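Would you mind writing out a protein's amino acid sequence and the numbers that encode its backbone to help me picture the idea?
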Amino acid sequence: MSPHPSDIQLDALREVANIGCGHAISALAKMVGGRTVNLSVPRALLADATGVAELLGGAETSVVVASLGILGPLRGLLLLVLPTPDSAALEALLLRRTDAPAEERESALAETANIVASACLSAIGMLTGWRLLPTVPTLQRGDAGPLIADAVFETQGDGRVVALETRFDSVGTPAVSGQVLLLLDAKSTSVLLAHLGV
C-alpha cells in the first residue's frame, strides 16, 4: 500500500466495512430485542489518533470503549464505542433493569462487544476466506482522546492507521447510538488490499 490509499482502494475498504459492520449491527439488533438499528454509510480513511478521535466527536467526548484484538492474517483492533449516556441505555436494555451492579453491566457490555466483533470478523472472513477471531474484550471509560491514542499506538506505534468506521442508531426508547471502528496497521491493510486485488 502506498502512504496514501487511492480512491479505488478506499472504496474497497469501505465495502469491507459495509459487509463487516452490517453483520455486526444485525447481531446487536438481535441482542436488544430485535429493534431496528440503522447504519450509516461506512467511512475508510488514513488517520492519526487525533483524526480517529474526531470521528467520535472530539478528544473530550466521554465514551465507553470495548477493544478487541484480531487473530488471523489481519492485525489491528476492533472497537465498539458508545457515548457514556448511550452505554448506560444499552446496559439497561441488555439487562432489562437500570439498577444492575457494576459487575453485571461490565459483563453485559463485554459480551455484547464480543458478539458484535465476532459477527464483523466472521463476515470479513467469509469475504476473504480467512479465519478471523476476536481476542477477549477490554473495557475502558473516559475521554475519547487518550483512549483512542492508546488504541492507535497499539495498532501502529506513532504512525497513522487505516480506520474503517460506521455509526449506528437504534430506533426506540431508550435510543442507543455508537460506532464500530476497525483499526488496521499498514501491513495488514496492504495484505487485505492485495487479497482483494486492488
About this structure: Residues 38 and 68 are 23 Å apart (CA to CA). The longest strand covers residues 62-71. Residues 7-196 form a domain with the Chemotaxis protein chec fold (CATH 3.40.1550.10).
